[in-house]
Automatic annotation (TrEMBL):
Family matches, as InterPro entries: Inositol_monoP_metal-BS, Inositol_monophosphatase-like
GO biological process, alphabetically ordered: inositol metabolic process; signal transduction
Name of the protein: Histidinol-phosphatase, inositol monophosphatase family
Record key words, sorted: Hydrolase, Magnesium, Metal-binding
Organism: Cohaesibacter gelatinilyticus
Amino acid sequence: MTTMMTIADHAETMSALASKTAMHFFRGALGVEFKADESPVTQADRAVETEVRRYLKTHFPDHGILGEEHGLEDGKKDHMWVVDPIDGTRSFLSGHPLFGFLLVHLTDGKPDLGVICMPVLNEIFMGQKGKGATLNGQLVQTSGQTSLNDAILYINEGEKICRDHPVIFDRLLSIGQTRRFAYDCYPHALLAAGHVDVVIDYDLQPYDYLSVSAVVEAAGGVMTDWNGQALSMTSDGAVVSAANRELHAQVLKTLSAPSDGGSFQP
């Protein structure tokens, strides 16, 4: 039987492999295609996922795999790995260094180990249920900030939130002491390390948020959907990460406050 320590070691090895493969393509000549939803995919995305799947099939042949580029294999398994080979393909293809590799292990559908790997920065954030979160092996934890008025807030996918939920978007612009617009996984990693207090994110898929939630929660934070429901494979993709429960409750109140546009509905 594979122990969690063994799984953690393998997760770190896969992160190193993914980083090496991604960096082989980064800022080089890329073949870029666009999916039906107009999101881009590159040779690098496919190469990284192929490398990770090969590793998983060798070392965990009885585990299921869900990957962004190659779909689901053996989805009814009690043990499942979910892979996002390059989180932030638009960042990657434009030469921006804040793309990541995301990996999560699920037992009976629930995350128990997650990785946020930043290849260019040489950073690996890992969260294990009941064991805390680390950055390159050193323990990290979320901030003690409990006042939303004083919080550092990141808004991911701001243009999509503005388009679909303009009232909520306007409301987000009035909260927090410092606000930044961003994309992809790194703001959540910064939250896990205590540098950021709140991250609002939108239009995500399970391979985008499950690994991130494992890291954030292992670091002492809270990550749910916009209605405060626990994240799962079937969540709607609108998520909020907060440093602690007090801050999380204040953010949910902001998202659901009555207004002319109404509260958030997925």
